Amino acid sequence: MIARISGTLIEKSVSHVIVDANGIGYRIFVPLTTFYELPEAGAKVALHTYTNVRQDAIHLFGFYSIEEKDIFELMIAVTGIGPKLAVNILSGIAARDLIEAISHGSVGRLVGIPGVGRKTAERMVLELKDKLAKLLTDKSGQKLGSLIKTTNLLQEDAVSALVNLGYKSNTVRDVIEKIVQASEEKLTLDLLLKKALKQLSG
Known about the structure:
alpha+beta; Helicase, Ruva Protein, domain 3; 3 domains; five-stranded mixed β-barrel; single chain; DNA polymerase, domain 1; 48% helix; CATH 2.40.50.140
C-alpha cells in the first residue's frame, strides 16, 4: 500500500491532482479541503495517501492531514460508503466537525452534506460512533472531544474579534476554519488572529 507520496505537483483540479515522484506521475483523488491547501503547479507537495485496489483499477486518494485520512478510512468501512463518497463527504465538512456530528448523533447536520441522505447519515452514526472512540486520543494524549471543544471556543473568540474589526462573519469563519485544519502547531488566540489577518488582508 502506498501510504505517502511526495514530489512535484504537475496538475491540480478540484477532484484530483497529479504528482510526479521520481519520474512517475501519480493521479490522486483529493477532497476540497486538501485542494485548498495545495501549492501552485510546479511546487513540491506531500500527501498522505490511501490505496484502493479493485479488480479493474487501482485508485489513490490523498489528504493534506493524517486526521482526514484516518476519518476517510473509517468512513469507507460503513455500509454504502465507497471511497469517492467518503472524499465527497470530507469536501463538504471539516474532519473535526464531522467527528463532532457523529459523536453527538447529529443526523440533521450530516444530511446537510451533499450526497448524504438520511439513511447514510444514520448508518454513519450507528457504525462510526463506537469506532471513533479509538480516535479519541491524539498523539499528545489529549482527548479529541476536549480538543474539539477547545478549538471551537478558540474559533468563536477569533471570529468575534475579527467581526468587531469590520470583517464579514461568513468570510472570517471560512478563513479561521481553514487555518485550524491546516495548522500543525498549537494555536493560541493571538497566533490564530495573526494568521487570519494576514490572509484577510490579501
